[in-house]
Amino acid sequence: MGKLLLDIDKLELAASKLRAIAHPMRIAIIDLLNEKQLSVTEIYEKLDIEQASASHHLNILKSKGVLASRRTGKKIFYSLKSQTLSEIIECINRCNDN
Questions:
Q1: CA–CA separation, 98 vs 95, rounded Å?
Q2: Helix, strand, or coil here: 76?
Q3: Phi, psi of 7 (to 5 degrees)
Q4: Would you kindly state where each structural domain of the chain is located, as residue ranges?
Q5: Over the stretch 49-72, which tens digit does the pLDDT of each residue have?
Q6: CA-wise closest residue to 40 among 74, 75, 80, 81
Q7: Which residues have C-beta within 8 Å of that of residue 47, sequence separation ≥ 6?
Q8: Is 19-96 assigned to CATH 1.10.10.10?
Q9: pTM for this structure?
Q10: Bridge partners, 38 (sequence order)
Q11: DSSP assignment of 44-72, as one string?
């Protein structure tokens, strides 16, 4: 059997992203954004949290490369950069159904 080569940089990046989503509110944000892009206002209203709290969590997710953002006028819209993390969350949810 061949030796498995692990790319330490890729593992660190993956761990960083997983740490970023390891919070119930950030998982909820990812779940919301799985459907479509949303503005900050739509996110905090749907989650019934303060705007400052939503912005804090969105900034963490964006800084770790989980979310993309675009500005339209005064509004900032967020979307998932990749569906992969959403699929990981779905997998975790399926595991918890047992």
A1: 6
A2: strand
A3: -90, 105
A4: 19-96
A5: 999 999 999 999 999 989 999 999
A6: 75
A7: 25, 28, 29, 32, 54
A8: yes
A9: 0.81
A10: 78
A11: HHHHT--HHHHHHHHHHHHHTTSEEEEEE
Side chain identity, residue 26: R
Positions of the chain with pLDDT lower than 50, given as ranges? none
17 vs 12: CA distance, rounded Å? 9
Structure tokens at 59: 């900034």
Residues 69 and 77: beta-carbon distance below 8 Å: yes
Which tokens is 25 given?
A: 């509110």
Q: Which residues pair with 77 in a beta bridge?
A: 39, 70
DSSP string, 4-27: PP--HHHHHHHHHHHHHH-SHHHH
CA dist 88 and 68 (Å) reads 18
